[in-house]
Amino acid sequence: MLSINRERFKENFSALANIGVMREGGINRPTFSNGHFKAREWFKQKTIDAGFKFKVDNAGNHIARFNCPSSTSPVLIIGSHLDSVPNGGKYDGALGVVAALEVLQTVKDSGVILPYHLEAIDFTDEEGTLVGLLGSSAVAGKLSEMEIANPRGNQDVLVDGYTKLGLSPSTILTSKRAPESIAGYIELHIEQGKILYEENIQVGIVTKIVGINSCSVTFLGRADHAGTTKMEDRLDASQGASSFGLTLFNRIKNNYPACVVNIGKMVFHPGAFNIVPEKVVVSVEFRAPESRQLDEIKFDLITVAKESAKAYNLKVEINFLGKHPPVIMDPRVRSTIKRVADSLGLKSREMPSGAGHDSQSFARICPSGMIFIPSKGGISHSPKEFSYWKDCVNGANVLLNTVLQGADYVQLY
Amino acid sequence: MLSINRERFKENFSALANIGVMREGGINRPTFSNGHFKAREWFKQKTIDAGFKFKVDNAGNHIARFNCPSSTSPVLIIGSHLDSVPNGGKYDGALGVVAALEVLQTVKDSGVILPYHLEAIDFTDEEGTLVGLLGSSAVAGKLSEMEIANPRGNQDVLVDGYTKLGLSPSTILTSKRAPESIAGYIELHIEQGKILYEENIQVGIVTKIVGINSCSVTFLGRADHAGTTKMEDRLDASQGASSFGLTLFNRIKNNYPACVVNIGKMVFHPGAFNIVPEKVVVSVEFRAPESRQLDEIKFDLITVAKESAKAYNLKVEINFLGKHPPVIMDPRVRSTIKRVADSLGLKSREMPSGAGHDSQSFARICPSGMIFIPSKGGISHSPKEFSYWKDCVNGANVLLNTVLQGADYVQLY
Predict the structure, then answer these.
(1) Residue ranges in chain A whose pLDDT is less than 70
(2) Within an 8 Å CB–CB cutoff, is residue A246 touching chain B?
(3) What angle in degrees, to the nearest 10, is found between the helix axes of B237-255 and A237-255?
(4) What's the rounded Cα separation, in Å, for the pair B395 and B381?
(5) CB contact under 8 A, B230 and A274
(6) Is the pLDDT score of B412 beyond 80?
(7) Do B273 and A287 lie within an 8 Å CB cutoff?
(8) Count of H helices and E strands in chain A?
(9) Which of A224, A264, A356 is facing B272, going by the closest CB pair?
(10) DSSP letters along B334-398, please?
(11) Which of A149, A297, A316, B77 is deepest in the core (most CB within 10 A)?
C-alpha cells in the first residue's frame, strides 16, 4: 500500500502550527483574523510550490486541485479548515488540511491514475466565528441568504473579510457546485473526545454527526444608578441572564443525556461597576444526535428564557442563528475506511461525532466519511489539545488509501 | 441675597452637555476617553476666558482659582466632576462643576471680599472608570499607592491618560494638600434617587454618604469543546459566576435592607459559542451606610463566592479594589444650607446619599456639605437622567449663598 511522506508531512504541519501562535502556545486564528489570513497565505503558497492548480471560490475556500485525465470526471474532495476558535489547539482542522495536501502530493508522485479529480480544500469559517461551516455548506448548496445576512458572529467582520479577499458576501452562494460534479468527500480530524484515547484505538470511523443550533438571548431591563436604586426597584438584566444560564444547563443535563448546551459568552451593557446592567446578551449553542431533540431543546430554551425574564420583570428577545441538522456518514465509505485500517494493522471502531465538521455539509449531497485519530485526554478547543504524531501519520495513511479506494463508494454518473 | 447669572449658567451647561454625546442622547465621558478630554479642555478654556487662575495638579484635577486679598488664607473648594459613566446623563457631575464656575464668577463680579480663597475644581475620575474619587481623595490625602497600582478599571488607560496629560501615576499622591490649607468643601449634585422628586422638595441637605467597596471575582474552570465534552465532565466557569450573582443579590436584598450590591459586568474567556468558558470575571460593587455592614457584606461575599465555586468544582480568586468608608456631613454646613434655602423660599429636607461623591474625600479632613436637587423619577447613570432647569438654578443659588456664608462653618487656623 502507498504511504505518505512522513518528513514532508511533519515539516508542513509544523510550519502551519507556527502561524497565529499566542504567548501561552494556543492557536488564535478566528476567521479573517491576521493569523487566519496568514494561514490561508501559507496554503496558497504551498499549493503553488507543489505544482497544483490553485483556486479561490466565491466563499473564499482555498482549493488545491489535481486533475485526472478525464476532464468530465467528478471530483473527490478531501479537506478541513485552517480557522480556529480563539486560543485553540494546533490539530483541530489544520491536521486535515495538511493531510489532504500530503495525499494529493503522494498520489501525484506515485503516478497512480484515478477515475476522479482530487481537491484538497481549506474551508472558510468552519468554527463559526461568523456562521459556522460557512465555506463547506456554500459549496454543498446548503447555505442560505439569511445565514449570511444574520451571522451569529460579527457582521462587519464578515463583510470586511470578504472585501479584503476581493470577494463579496452577495456572491458567496454562487460557490455552490452541481452535486453530480462531486464524487465524494473524506475528512481526517482529531476526535476531540476521549474515547479513542482511553480505549487505545488508533482510528475512529464516524457514523453520524450531531446537529447544532445556536442563538443569542437578550435580556432587557433598565440602567440605573447602582447606589441610589433600591434592590427591589431594579430591572437587572444580569439576574435574568444568570437564572437562564443555570436553569437551561440543568434542564439539558437532566433531561437530555445524549445532548449538550453551552453558555459560551455573556455581554453586559453598559458594563460598569456602578450601573445596573440594562442589557445582557447570552450566546447559546446546543447539540443533539436527532433532529427531534434539537427541536425539543429549542422549545425548552424558549420556555426557560421567558420564565427567567418574567421572574425579574425583564423583556427577552431570542435570535436563532442557523442550524446544522444531524447527518449519517455513508455506510460504503465507512466500510472502506474499516478495510483500509485493517490492512494497515490499525485498530478501529465506529463512533458518533459530538463536534461539527465540514463533512456535515457534504453528507447531505454525496458519499461522505470521516476518519478520527485519538486526542490525548479528549481535550480540544484549548492550547492543551494534543495528539501523538504517530497517530497523525496513521490517520493520513488511512485517508490516502481511502482516497485510492474511491471506486468502492464514489458516485460516478 | 446675591443670585447667579441664569443665562450664562444655562449657556455653559448647554455647551458642556454637547461634549461626548452619543447618538441616543447619552453622555459618554469615561475617564480619559476622548469625550472626557474634550470636557476638560472646555473647563480650561472657560476658566482662562473668565480671568481666573488655571491650574492642573498632579492628580490631573482642573482648578479655577479666585484669590482673596490675604495670601495666607485657606481655600474653600467647590466642585464636582466632568467624567461620566458609559452612556450616562448630562447632569451627574457636570451640574456641580458648571455651578462652581458660575459661583466664582458671580462672587468676582459682585466685588464681595471673602476671608478665604475660592477654587472651582473638576476632579479626575469620580465615577470609578479607573479608581473612583481618584482626584478628590488624592487632594484630601486619602488615596493609596495600592489603589493606583491595582485600579478596579484598566491600568493601561490610567497610565496612558496621565502620560497624555504630561503627568505620571508615580506623582499623583503629591497632589495632597495640607489639611489646614483647606477651609471647607461644598458640592452641588443631582440626587440620583426619587425622594425629592416624589416629595416635591427643591433642596436636599446630605447628612451622610454610604460607604462603597468593589471587587472583581474570577471563577476558573477549564476550556473544553462544547460539543464533545459531556455536561457532567465540564468545569464551566459560567455556572459558578451565575450562581454567585443570583445568590449574592438575594442575600443582600433579604439580609441588608439599607444596603445594595451590583453585578455590573461579567467577562467570559475565551468567549466563543463553541468553547466551555474557562474563566469568568465578575465586577461587583456594594454599598452600606455603616462601616460594620460593609465588613459583614464583604465576609458574606467571600462565603458565597467560595460556595458557588465549590458547587461547580471551580477555583475562585477575589481581588478587592479599594474602599471608600461612609462619612458624615458637617452639622454646621448642614444648618447653613438649611438657612440659605429658607431665605430663598425653598423647601428642603435632610437625607442620606446612596451615591458616592467627591465630598466623601473632603468630609474626612474638613467641614464639608452637599446640596441635592431633584432627579426626575430618580433615574440616573442613564440617558434618561433629567432635572428641571428651575431646580438647577435654585441649587446653584443655594451653593452661591452657602459659599458666601462660609464664616459660619469654615476652619480658619
Answers:
(1) 413
(2) yes
(3) 130
(4) 20
(5) no
(6) no
(7) no
(8) 12, 13
(9) A264
(10) HHHHHHHHHHTT--EEEEEESS--THHHHTTTS-EEEEEE--GGG--SSTT----HHHHHHHHHH
(11) B77
